Input
Amino acid sequence: MTQKITIIKGDGIGPEIMDATIKILDQMDLDFEYDFKDAGLEALEKHGDLLPQDTLDAIKANKICLKGPLTTPVGKGFSSINVALRRHFNLFANVRPVVTFEGTKSMYENIDILTIRENTEGAYLSEGQTINADRTIAESKIVVTREASENIVRYAFEIAKKAGRKKVTAVHKANIMKTTSGLFLEVAQEMAKEYPEIEFNTLIVDNTCMQLVMNPSQFDVIVTTNLFGDIISDLCAGLVGGLGMAPGANIGSDVAMFEAVHGSAPDIAGMKIANPTALILAAAMMIEHLGYVAEANRIRLAIRKTLLDKDRLTGDLGGSAYTADFTDAVISRL
Output
């Protein structure tokens, strides 16, 4: 049965790395049909809306979306497109794996960390934001609910169980944020008792960041709230060579969206030198989600071999090749 996938090419380097990713997906001989839709600056220019209803309808119908980086214009009246998508489809789990690839600027060997971030509330809920008339005092409300905390903690334990991972670390700031972070910690401790076969520990977020830099191999699965997860997942990406190597997924009960987590890099847009690895790895996550586990691993192995052989690498990976050249190098190893 044909699987229809909503494709959002994105802004800046988005179209270039998406074309590379689709070229690789086409090599896998899977029964996919691509449904191209607009979002971001291109959508604003074409339709007068950063996130057109037609795009939302397509994602809802197809249930699977592969998305390039989007640019939210700076200034009043524009809210984050990514946050809007997560809330609209209740994509409660943000999943960010980082794995060491030989041949990159990775600071460590044998890193394999999965960060699971609550995606719909916390500091990013943005409710109750106010600033006084003379712009000297700004306020914003943080909301953490038991339901959302249970959803994300259970998801982390279940994905650890399914993947054969051994340890889950709940990251918090309950020593200071005693109500919001305290509730998350309380829920995590309660739910850990349901998974006695998985090692469980808790860490304060600032200590977590230090420990990640000093000894990242102690971490396996990290589960945390929205803001902390945003920061920690980028820190983890830095351990393995940067955001150019970091894919991400946003998972809900009905819809799943896969993406490169880096920005749109307008400074190099159109130069055809962007590294497409993050989006290719996101596509591998997507097809694994759809049940094509062996095919996803083939893509990852082809990338690993290309990096190890230093064959036609882009500038950020230490080479001087174009995006299309790197893509062909990966394809030659599939």
